[in-house]
Design brief:
Layout (H helix, E strand, L loop, with lengths): L1 H10 L6 H12 L10 H13 L9 E8 L15 H10 L4 H9 L1 E9 L10 E2 L17 H20 L4 E7 L3 H13 L3 H4 L8 H18 L6 H8 L2 H15 L4 E3 L2 H13 L7 E3 L8 H8 L15 H19 L3 H4 L5
Parallel strand pairs: 1-2, 1-4, 2-3, 4-5, 5-6
Helix pairs in contact: 1-6, 2-3, 3-14, 5-14, 6-10, 6-11, 7-9, 7-10, 7-12, 11-12, 12-13
Length: about 350
């Protein structure tokens, strides 16, 4: 039944409004600049027009959805931080003290912290509880979760976006928290992206090269044991993914079906975007790439999806930080559409 519900959501994702894209392009070409000279800002403006059907939509109500979940694979010593940091950081998000909170305040964005799979209990009025289970299993010993759990996590993400869209939110960013989730993301990157494991596995939270090689071995063992099907993204997501990653797949699909742009954060969010792109290729035009992470597999991962990052600041924090920073570039693109003079209005001769 859950997969039937997911299939209906996927069927509801429509192509971009081509007339709006073309109208935005004509307007951009009429502005006092050489055609195309504002580069990606112009591309973003046209994409936003196609998504919303408006030349310069009001996207001032925006939210970063921070999905949190624990990973059983932490038992293998893949992270520089202990597993209990996931729950501790959730409390930090809820109290407004994390980097994503600071950057979201600057960008005028709501931070939605979601417990979709943390191995702890919380009592906080701002927490959105969508817990599927208390963390994934150790994927070097068994599948991280069942297929049904992966689909349930996706649907939880879709439902959350639906609820926020009903409250007037029109732009979203993907964020996450889960000690061990670069390991799961590397496995997804390798299987779904066809990228060599050694190229997919980076330094994560700051491990050294010796531990990275151990992490490479962990990912290889997990893939060998579970034999995820690269042609079946749900199978792969369940076997070597994470609950927060699956939840972000739902956020991306939910944004697309509601005709809202979704700004994709770093490596972990991009692994979710890759899965979403394979589950529903028609969702890709609703995605906006934010930044290039220092995780070594990120550039190849973005290329597999077809996304181009806006900024390169050597970041590797996650949480949605790069995506929230990129809201400012989205605002810049919309301001160009609204405020810049045309050749005609300014009385300037065309080239």
């Amino acid at each position: 039944m859950s997969e039937e519900a997911l299939a209906k959501i996927i069927a509801g994702i429509r192509p971009l409004n081509r007339e709006a894209v073309e109208a935005a392009e004509r307007h951009l070409d009429s502005l006092t600049k050489p055609p195309g000279s504002l580069g990606k800002l112009e591309a973003i403006a046209m994409q936003l027009a196609g998504i919303t059907g408006e030349p310069a939509a009001d996207l001032s109500q925006r939210a970063v959805i921070v999905m949190a979940g624990d990973h059983g694979v932490c038992e293998e010593g893949v992270s520089a931080f202990p597993a209990e940091v996931t729950a501790q950081m959730v409390n930090n998000f809820l109290e407004g003290g994390a980097a994503v909170n600071v950057l979201a305040r600057q960008a005028g964005a709501l931070v939605c912290c979601v417990d979709i799979g943390v191995n702890a209990d919380f009592d906080h009025p701002l927490l959105m509880s969508r817990k599927i289970r208390r963390g994934t299993a150790n994927m070097t010993r068994q599948a991280a979760m069942t297929r049904e759990e992966a689909v349930s996590a996706i649907l939880a993400g879709v439902e959350l976006v639906e609820q926020l869209a009903e409250r007037g939110y029109r732009m979203f960013a993907t964020g996450e928290m889960g000690i061990g989730n670069t390991t799961a993301s590397s496995a997804l990157c390798a299987v779904l992206g066809g990228i060599a494991v050694d190229d997919a596995v980076g330094l994560g939270t700051g491990i050294d090269e010796q531990r990275r090689l151990h992490k490479v071995d962990v990912v290889r063992r997990a893939i060998e044991l579970n034999a995820p099907d690269p042609k079946d993204p749900l199978d792969t997501l369940a076997k070597v993914g994470g609950l927060e990653i699956a939840g972000l797949v739902g956020v991306i699909l939910g944004a697309a079906v509601n005709r809202c742009p979704v700004v994709i954060d770093g490596f972990i969010s991009s692994s979710a975007a890759l899965a979403a792109s394979l589950i529903a290729p028609q969702a890709v035009p609703y995605m906006i790439g934010s930044h290039l992470s220092r995780e070594q597999g990120h550039l190849k991962l973005l290329a597999r999806i077809g996304l181009s990052p806006m900024i390169h600041l050597d970041m590797r924090l996650g949480e949605g930080t790069g995506a929230v920073l990129s809201f400012h570039f989205v605002d810049a693109a919309l301001s160009i559409m609204r405020e810049m003079a045309t050749f005609e209005s300014a009385g300037i001769s065309r080239g």
